Amino acid sequence: MAIRNDPASTVKLLAMGLSFAMFAGGGYVIYMRSKGWDAWTLQAFGIVLLVPTILALAVTQALSTEILATLLGGVAGYIFGRGSGGSDGGGHRGL
Predict the structure, then answer these.
(1) How would residue 80 be classed by pLDDT, with cut points 50, 70 and 90?
(2) 61: left (phi > 0), else alpha (psi -120 to 50), else beta?
(3) Could you tell me which residues come within 8 angstroms of residue 31 by beta carbon, excluding any fewer than 6 positions away?
(4) Contact of 53 with 86, CB cutoff 8 Å
(5) What is the pTM of this model?
(6) pLDDT per residue as tens digits for the range 35-75
(7) Could you tell me if 39 and 50 are in contact, meaning their C-beta atoms sit under 8 angstroms apart?
(8) Which long-range contacts (CB under 8 A, 24 or more apart) does 14-22 make?
């Protein structure tokens, strides 16, 4: 088994490790702060699962840049569109 020492594979390996650390660390923080399985907890776990997955897909170049930009735009729109003046009455907690 040959070990690859090129910089691109090192960056990919570091990014995959970072995405795993984001998933595990974010999941742990949300688990420790939650008081049960309410809507906020499920939304936070969804974000913690989506963002590292998108990062891993971007690094491995499994999807085109247009698809990755669409996914990131959707996640950003969801996060920043949850302001306190929405049609659902607002007043919900943010991530």
Answers:
(1) confident
(2) left
(3) none
(4) no
(5) 0.63
(6) 877 878 888 888 888 888 888 888 888 888 899 899 989 98
(7) no
(8) 15/55, 15/56, 15/59, 16/56, 16/59, 16/60, 18/52, 18/55, 19/52, 19/53, 19/55, 19/56, 19/59, 20/52, 22/48, 22/51, 22/52, 22/55
